[in-house]
Amino acid sequence: MSRVVFVLVPGVHLLDLSGPAQVFDTARDLGQPYELTYVAERELVPSAQGLTLNARTRWPATGPDDLVVVPGWRSSPPHDGPEPGPHALERLCAHHAAGGTVAGVCAGALALGRAGLLDGRRCTTHHELQDELAARHPRATVVRDVLFTADERVVTSAGIASGIDLALHLLAVRHGPALAARVARNMVVFARRNGHEPQAGVMLRHRSHPDDVVHRVQDLIDARFAEPLSLTYLALTAQVSERTLTRLFTRATGGLTPLRYQQALRLERAEHLIGQGSTVEAAAREVGFDDARMLRRLRARAL
């Protein structure tokens, strides 16, 4: 079982917290063994929106497969309000040092900075806090006008609704795009915003449409992108003709055929594997290509 620990401070923004929490809770409903835990310095935590939350004051044990998330809080100039205390910062550092992933939503990036986790890394936060983040942590690279960044198991997002984008990205990296697609569909967040960040993913970039036939076919391709999937088989599954499926799919995804969509998923997964140290040949086999020549052609085309 993987644990997701949310670190709460007084004035926490509900959507900074509830968006990512809903993503992982939905993944749990779909069969992934996630346990959600909420910690704070005091048991009662007032939110920025007036709702008081209950949290535990003792941190659970965490391992490399666990995630620690710091949701944002109400922070107005001069931004001298409550922030996570020394114990929480120590736990953030220790968790990351042990191989775990840490995430900051909105002002949560300030906490990661205070813990020393942003030095030499790319990060982002809400646009109203970006100047302050850059001033506080000059060794960090603050990326502006993006929804989220991920750099060596340190993930930050612009905040508010973008915490959902961050959490779906983490699901896609951990479990593949098919689960992230199912969670997004369950949460009715097809109209995804993705900026220019490559972490947004092929699946997320082409889910911003209401066509249920195309969503069903995408669900199938997302789950089995490494397998041969003929247009005939996809059309039979969708109970439409091949010509109709191609027309609907191309219109919904902005010009992609089902085959091109599958190739894009394979390429994205292969690039991730190569980035983790896999050879081109091994990555090609892993994502379903008979040999590496097609993968090399697709990579060259993308460049």
From TrEMBL:
InterPro entries: Class_I_gatase-like (IPR029062), DJ-1/PfpI (IPR002818), Homeodomain-like_sf (IPR009057), HTH_AraC (IPR018060), INH-QAR (IPR052158)
Limits of the HTH araC/xylS-type domain: 215-303
UniProt-listed CDD domains: GATase1_AraC_1
Keyword field contains Transcription regulation: yes
Protein name per the record: AraC family transcriptional regulator
Gene3D superfamilies, alphabetized: 3.40.50.880, Homeodomain-like
Record carries keyword RNA-binding: no
Pfam families: DJ-1_PfpI (PF01965), HTH_18 (PF12833)
Record keywords: Transcription, Transcription regulation
